Amino acid sequence: KSSSLLLMEHKVYQGTLVLVNREHPVRYQLPQKDLRPVFPQQPGILMEKESAGMLRKLLSHIQNGQEGIVGVSGYRTKAEQAGIFESSWKENGREFTEKYVAAPDCSEHQTGLAIDLAKNCPEIDFIRPAFPYHGVCQEFRELAAGFGFIERYAKEKQTVTGIGEEPWHFRYVGRPHAELMQREGLALEEYIGWLKQFDLERRPLVLQKPGLTYRIGYVRAQGKLTEWKMELPKSRIEISGNNVDGFIITLALKME
What we know:
The chain has helices at 49-61, 65-68, 78-92, 94-100, 135-144, 158-161, 177-184, 188-194; strands at 2-8, 35-37, 46-48, 69-73, 114-119, 149-153, 166-172, 205-209, 212-220, 225-231, 236-241, 246-254. The chain is of the alpha+beta class. The radius of gyration is 18 Å and the shape is globular.
């Protein structure tokens, strides 16, 4: 049967696939009730609840994950981000700060979907923590996409993201999107643009997993209210805004 979904304009700015950068600032304030701690020993480091749960699962999969990796910075308020930006500007100067610290409202940390991680060691640099490409950190990195996380700021994507290489900064986008971004070699900026060619009815993006098929499509926002009609198979449906101009709809169909 044909289903009709009504997509509200303000929902463009919410969801696990929101793109936040200098051009697309945060437009939605995550409520406190939606935040959860990730590390039992660090109750002050919070993330949005779904991403916090998936990060805990990922860490429990890794040998010594909970001991070998610590949180450095998760969710930040606008005021906290402004404080970090200003103090870095004073201490490190403009060039360094613009490369490694986002201006207030331009930081993914304000969404609750991003976290900076560090290898557990006595001295940890808050702005540029060590998260090397070997050992427990690399094990985390290799498993991240399967739990919905991407390494957000890769060295080869600096011209796309406008941010310097940050091996420590991970962003939750959810499955299957993290796996698709990894497969296609796309930064989030590129992925949001790439998805626009896919329409759920006429030309969906399809990803087959064992026992599960994902179908993904983009819907452009049409002002205050976007009505989207389609024959929906029995499936789990997830809708995320992209924080730019529309919605990404993900259907997860269980295979019999």
